[in-house]
Structure of 6,7-dimethyl-8-ribityllumazine synthase:
Amino acid sequence: MLVVVPTEFKPAEPNSKDRYAIVVAQWNQLVTDKLLDGAITTLLGAGISEGLINVARVPGSWELPLAAQQLARSGRYAAVICLGVVIRGETTHDEHINRGVSLALGQISLECELPLPLGLLTVNSLEQALARAGGDVGNKGSECAEAALHMVGLLKTMPEA
């Protein structure tokens, strides 16, 4: 019996000439600065030079999609990494922010055909946020940068539409 092995697309190695943007919310800056540090450290570790990493700071997570869309549409970036934190409060406000931002960023990614890794922490407390920003649960900013590098490389090896 003949065994057919499917073709698997594997990501290309990171290109040190690719430019990356990071949009980061200033609200909950104690946490978002740690996410930003994780993302930048990961990109630098992959050989992306500091001069090819641009950061846009927005007031809060709600503003992530507009800035990400502007950067994605510019055609200058291989990926736009989005970082923010929404901590649950006494109302359902957090649910509306999280859903709206997530859906908008997903749509922008598809429309622009560009990776927009979502590093939007949706947590119940500051302690949970800090655990995900370099604490015992890892650094979601770093994980988003890894996802960006992977997707940029993968898109380079896949056939174009």
Summary: The chain has a mean pLDDT of 94. The helical segments are 29-45, 64-73, 93-112, 126-131, 140-157.
